[in-house]
Design goal:
There is one protein chain. The chain is α/β, with parallel strands linked by helices. It has three domains: about 5-105, no CATH class; about 110-190, no CATH class; about 195-340, Rossmann fold (3-Layer(aba) Sandwich), CATH 3.40.50.720. It has helices at about 5-15, 55-70, 85, 110-120, 160-170, 200-215, 245-250, 265-275, 290-300, 305-310, 325-340, and strands spanning about 20-25, 35-40, 45-50, 75-80, 95-100, 120-130, 140, 145-150, 175-180, 180-190, 195-200, 215-220, 240, 255-260, 285, 315. A hairpin with a 4-residue loop joins strand 2 and strand 3 (about 45-50). The longest helix has 16 residues, at about 325-340. It is elongated.
Length: about 350
């Protein structure tokens, strides 16, 4: 949706009739993941893609049919179809594409647009298969469990809001088959991953450069202006000249946040960790030896953190790659973050 948002806004301002097509499920070697979108207008405007070109013409034709009928449809394509080489997937995969008029978004579009523009994590839940009464029903869901829209999740046995929030936190859209007759599409829109670096040390300079390559927004927190400045961090997205404990209270620490604490100074590190370990951040790591970390854990325990909260701390920080130079330490930290991000075991 993010990719086609500018086109949608332009078309809406021009009063265009719009239909949206969304990849609802995939099998095998599909060219586009679940949640990929194509938008088409009655006047011929096209934005986005559901297959990289393989089935676009058939989907666009169905978009026009949906605008005529006002009713959504669920299309299936694959190499096994009779039309395989005309509208199929010669790469061998299969996909289902859900096509609906844009009017189905009227309950949630304004809030969804704000989430996408402001980088707020959200998920869009759509009723895509079942009795016709369910069509045009959607629910916009946030990480804290808040929801808005006209889709009542509690009517489906076995599906609860926390389970949908977990899908959002994992950041991968998927279809949920509730029963033989009912399927929901959950489109996850996680915010851009943010690397929050506490301590404007030499390793932090390398981290900022490498993290940008991986697509992270970088935020450097350190009250010391002599260290935390644009001369040293020209590529950082934000420089926060505040004490870490205060700064992290105002930085959004949800599942899109990864916190790295680097100063070795308890006056800076401990207040940051006291905030971060109580937050929803996906990763919290701290630099230091095993001995330093044991002392740190003792202080944090005395400050009131639970064993469960302390168990979230990655320390000594980073995968053990054997490096000692700042750039090598930065690589090891990012390797561990990527490891956590992809939900694979540490080590």
């Amino acid at each position: 949706m993010r990719d086609i948002l500018p086109d949608l806004e332009q078309w809406l301002n021009n009063g265009e009739e719009i239909a949206l097509a969304t990849v609802a499920s995939t099998w095998g070697s599909s060219p586009r993941p679940v949640g990929s979108k194509l938008a088409a207008t009655r006047s011929g405007g096209i934005a986005g893609s559901v297959s990289g070109g393989c089935v676009e013409s058939a989907v666009i034709e169905e978009c026009l049919s949906v605008l005529d009928s006002g009713q959504p449809s669920l299309l299936s394509f694959g190499i096994a179809d009779d039309l395989a080489w005309d509208v199929g997937l010669p790469c061998g995969g299969k996909i289902q594409v859900f096509v609906e008029p844009f009017s189905a978004y009227k309950e949630v579009y304004s809030s969804l647009k704000r989430c996408l523009r402001d980088q707020v994590s959200c998920a869009l839940v759509t009723y895509i298969k079942g009795s016709p009464e369910g069509y045009h029903r959607k629910l916009l869901l946030f990480e804290d469990g808040r929801a808005q829209g006209n889709l009542e999740i509690n009517q489906y046995a076995g599906i609860q809001i926390p389970a949908l929030v977990e899908i959002l936190k994992r950041g991968k859209s998927k279809s949920l088959e509730i029963n033989e007759d009912t399927t929901l599409l959950v489109e996850a829109y996680p915010a851009q991953a943010r690397l929050v670096i506490v301590g404007a040390v030499h390793t932090a300079e390398k981290l900022v450069s490498l993290a940008r390559v991986l697509g992270f927004k970088t935020i450097v927190v350190d009250p010391r202006r002599a260290f935390n400045n644009r001369e040293r961090f020209p590529d950082a997205d934000e420089l926060v000249l505040e004490w870490p404990g205060e700064a992290l209270e105002t930085v959004r620490l949800d599942s899109s946040a990864y916190v790295v604490v680097l100063t070795h100074d308890p006056k800076l590190d401990d207040p940051a960790l006291l905030v971060a370990l109580k937050s929803g951040a996906s990763y919290i790591g701290a630099l230091g030896s095993q001995r330093t970390n044991q002392k740190r854990l003792g202080r944090l325990r005395a400050a009131g953190l639970s064993e469960g909260q302390l168990a979230r701390l990655f320390a000594p920080i980073g995968l053990d790659l054997g490096g000692r130079r700042p750039e090598e330490i930065a690589v090891s930290i990012l390797a561990e973050i990527v490891n956590v991000r992809n939900k694979t075991p540490k080590g």
